[in-house]
Structures are given as structure tokens and as C-alpha cells.
Amino acid sequence: MAKVFVIAGPSGVGKGTLIGRLRERVPTLELSVSATTRPPRVGERDGVDYHFLDRTEFDARIAADQFVEWAEYSNNRYGTLRSELERRADAGFPVVLEIDLQGARQVAERMPAAVRVFVAPPDSAALRQRLLARATDSPEVIEQRLEVAEAELAAREEFPYVVVNDSLERATDELVAIVGSQLLVG
Fold this sequence. Notes:
Blueprint lengths: L3 E5 L6 H11 L4 E2 L3 E2 L14 E2 L2 H9 L3 E7 L2 E6 H9 L4 E5 L1 H10 L4 E6 L3 H11 L4 H15 L7 E4 L3 H18 L1
Parallel strand pairs: 1-7, 1-8, 2-7, 3-4, 8-9
Antiparallel strand pairs: 3-6, 5-6
Helix pairs in contact: 1-7, 5-6
């Protein structure tokens, strides 16, 4: 199986942006599409941005052990389907997962060889500003995300690699260097 990279960190820290830039510079890297019970946002497409599942189907897949990891976040469930990950990795493509702390811990347990990277904000104020600027969540959801973020930031020591996203260019360079070095290891 090819390498699996786990990119985790609090909501709004820039994981998606960094992964997009990483994939531009490492084009062989495949993105695993997560499943979720949340409704699609404007412009999101099923099977491309997420696999949108209703709660009943999501629960059935949990019961059938079809997830490598899953978590509940802001009253919605998110998870990585085992089939999604295996299809890409078995074809020899390195795969990147964009997941939360809870999911990263599950992957570490089930797939100890996965390379885990924690993306951290320069400080809490920067994280708040990013969530507000994103304008995709209500003020209540933003406050929930910030509360969760405090606990997640305390867990950064659990990760072999930490990238502080204080400069997008520098953080991208650092992430590319980590992934590149791990791909060379084999």
C-alpha cells in the first residue's frame, strides 16, 4: 500500500488551502474524499468535495466497519471510507487525508505507518479571524469551532510533524518538504 498522509488541525487553520497547494507541487498525491452527514455548501458536489450521506446510511456504514475513522463535529458526522482510501492507495498513489484530531487519532491506531502532520495557527486570534473571514458558518458554530480548537491545539505534541500556518508560502514549503522526504523513504 502507498503512503498515507494525515493532515489535521483545528477548523479554519488552512488545512484545505495547504493541501491544495501541496497537491499542485506533488501531483501524484491523491486526496481522499471524506463522507459527511452535513448538507452540501453552495458549489459542493457529491463524490468530489464529499460523499454526502444521510445519518441512517452513515450509521449503517459505521456498523459495517466501513470507515477508517469517523467523528461527530458540530452535530454532523465526518469520516474516511475504507474503500475510498484503499482504492487510491492500492493503485500505488500516495493519499492525503484532511481530518480532525479525533479522526487522526483513529488513523494512528489503525494505520500506524500513516504520516501525521498537525497544522497550527500562529495564535488563537488568527484562527478566529480566519473563521470569520471564511463566512461559511453562523456565529454560534464559529464559537463551537473555537472551543474545540483550544482542546485540539493542546494535542499538537501527539504529532510527529507540526506546521505553523503563519505564512502560506513558508507553511506550504514545509509541508512539501515533509511529504517529499517521506515519499523518498518508500
